[in-house]
Amino acid sequence: MTDSVTDHDAAEARAQPTPFELLGGLEGVRALVDRFYDLMDLEPEFAELRALHPTTLEGSRDKLAWFLTGWLGGPDLYVERFGHPRLRMRHFPYAIGVRERDQWLTCMGLAMAEIGEAGGFTAFMQERLMQSFANTADHMRNHAS
């Protein structure tokens, strides 16, 4: 492959909008995170997941929004504040099994669906993100149950 083809491919990749941009930037990510935590806080079906979090969720909201911003292709706000995410290590103190994983995924799926296409969460985007979220959420499991 010649340098000109490689340079062209790289320029074309940079021209494609990131998921962060497609979802409306920080405002869109924050809307997702806020809806996710609102559902988790209000819906009884997410009680085990909610129990893993502090009494107030402001810090959790900020950390997830900062993490997702970078993960979706925006600025690395989480890394700037805390360094490498080391997700598994940071979640290890919490008992995360199949139930907690599934509650997290269900809650996030509902949040994306409620925001919908107006917020950039097309069916394709929801499917794409849920696949990635599922892989990560399963990796966070540290208990068999």
Describe the protein in words.
The protein is globular. Helix 3 packs across helix 8. It starts with a helix and ends in a 5-residue tail after the last helix. The chain is built from nine helices and no strands. 70% of the residues lie in helices and 0% in strands. With 145 residues, it is mainly α. It has one domain: Globin-like. The longest helix has 18 residues.
User: What best-fitting shape do the alpha-carbon axes yield?
Assistant: globular
Provide the residue-averaged pLDDT: 92
Please tell me the total number of domains: 1
Weakly predicted, low-confidence segments: none
Number of strands: 0
According to CATH, the homologous superfamily is Globins
Question: If classified by CATH, what would the architecture be?
Answer: Orthogonal Bundle
**Range of strand content:** under 5%
Largest sheet: none
State the order of secondary-structure elements, H for helix, E for strand.
HHHHHHHHH
Task: Describe the structure concisely for a colleague.
With 145 residues, the protein is mainly alpha-helical.
Key descriptive features of the protein:
mainly alpha; Globin-like; 145 residues
Q: How are the SSEs placed, and which strands pair?
A:
Layout lengths: L2 H13 L3 H4 L2 H18 L4 H5 L6 H14 L5 H6 L4 H5 L6 H18 L7 H18 L5
